[in-house]
Amino acid sequence: VQLKESGGGSVEPGGALTLSCVHSGPIYSSYCLAWFRQRPGNGRERVSYFSRDGSIWYLDSVRGRFTISKDNSKNIMFLQMNNLKPEDTAMYYCAADPRGWCRAGDFGFWGQGAQVTVSS
């Protein structure tokens, strides 16, 4: 399984970006597909994910601003980020968990990351 992010960049506060994650290899509908981020000086945190039962979860600080979506026919997942804030500045990663329940330690497949910088 390989994952590759794209769509990062620099925007001003209040701006928007959409990250894409293309995955190749056998990713099944039972997998958890997720977005993580790592802000400067912090550990990696889950931002949003699709679990194996189809439920969607968002980090509290991004709920209402970020939207996760995917197109299984094209092996691609998106993270639409609106009303970006300086504290959203981070390296963003997509990840896959074959067990499907999105527990932090179960993500065995990672992309290389896409940098998002929000500043004026």
Word description of this protein:
The chain is mostly beta strands. It is built from no helices and eleven strands. The strands form two sheets. Strands 2, 4, 5, 6, 9, 10 and 11 form a seven-stranded mixed β-sheet that branches. A four-stranded antiparallel β-sheet has the order 1-3-8-7, with no helix packed on it. It is globular.
Strand fraction band?
over 45%
Q: Are there runs of 5+ residues with pLDDT below 50, and where?
A: none
How far apart are the termini? 37 Å
What is the number of E strands?
11
Mean pLDDT: 94
Order of helices and strands: EEEEEEEEEEE
Radius of gyration: 13 Å
Q: Specify the biggest β-sheet.
A: 7 strands, mixed
Work out the helicity level.
Answer: under 10%
Assign an overall shape: globular
Per DSSP, the total helix count is: 0
Q: Which structural class do you get from the secondary structure elements?
A: mainly beta
What is the topology?
Layout: E1 2-6, E2 9-11, E3 17-24, E4 32-38, E5 44-50, E6 56-58, E7 66-71, E8 76-81, E9 90-97, E10 109-110, E11 114-118
Parallel strand pairs: 2-11
Antiparallel strand pairs: 1-3, 3-8, 4-5, 4-9, 5-6, 7-8, 9-10, 9-11
